[in-house]
Amino acid sequence: MLLLVVIVSILSIGSLNGDAVIQAAFRACPGSSGSIWTRPSYCPADPSNNPPQQTEIMDLIAWTWNTAPKEQACPFGLSRVLLRFDQMTDVIPQDAIIRSATLKLFGVGSQQVNGYAFSYFANSYLNAYAPAHYGPNRVNITRVTQAYDMATVTWNTQPSSQGPPAVIPESNMQFYYNIAVDVKSLVDNMLAPGTNNGFLLQFEVEDYYRSMNFFSSNTKDDSKRPLLEVEYIVSCKGSATKDVLLEAPIVNVKN
Ligand SMILES: *[C@@H]1O[C@H](CO)[C@@H](O)[C@H](O)[C@H]1NC(C)=O
Predict the structure, then answer these.
(1) Average per-residue pLDDT in the chain?
(2) Would you give the distance in Å from CA 174 to the centre of its chain?
(3) What three-state secondary structure class fits 221?
(4) Predicted model pTM
């Protein structure tokens, strides 16, 4: 039996049997990202029941609203980001083997406000201007494990998610912080029917002051929209081995 396995493996290396390594790139479709917000329940205008605004930015922000400390009236607000690539599972077969998966996000920039560079975006929940990327802002990316509707989801109805997380490292610049994160371990578990519910992004420590703002799925500049690059193997027999993969022809599928 062992001998047989070895022989099959060697034959596979020597003669391509039709297995293919495919490189695909998926841009987040409009409407497939959003920020959900919360503030302490005693605050006026608590956004915990508000669905995401369809803006050009996905904001991860934990900040004070006033200059007051957290213990005082309504100083603190916090967001998380939901992001999906629904088309991925329209393309990648359920029994494909993921070889690599990389999430690329494009950091927002700055504009000059009274001589200072601030994030050029501030939404209705956060009227304070903040640098686009600030503070000890490591971000956990986990796999969402429940279906939800981006148009109606809120902080209070947010889906559950599962780690261990992929991590966006703390930013090394305040603006235009572009990142590429290895999300293979998350995408590995997104191919079965009903399991591609995307990603949840949240600060590793959800306390102020920190911000991490990326262009969203809705930004007008297509090249800035979130990108998921996946390299995967489709096997003739559904039994590709590591040896086969190295020999297989690569097919590029550009979005
Ligand atoms: C982020 O991930 C780390 C490591 O798994 C964990 O210790 C931390 O609690 C996570 N943060 C949140 C807010 O879930």
Answers:
(1) 80
(2) 20
(3) coil
(4) 0.83
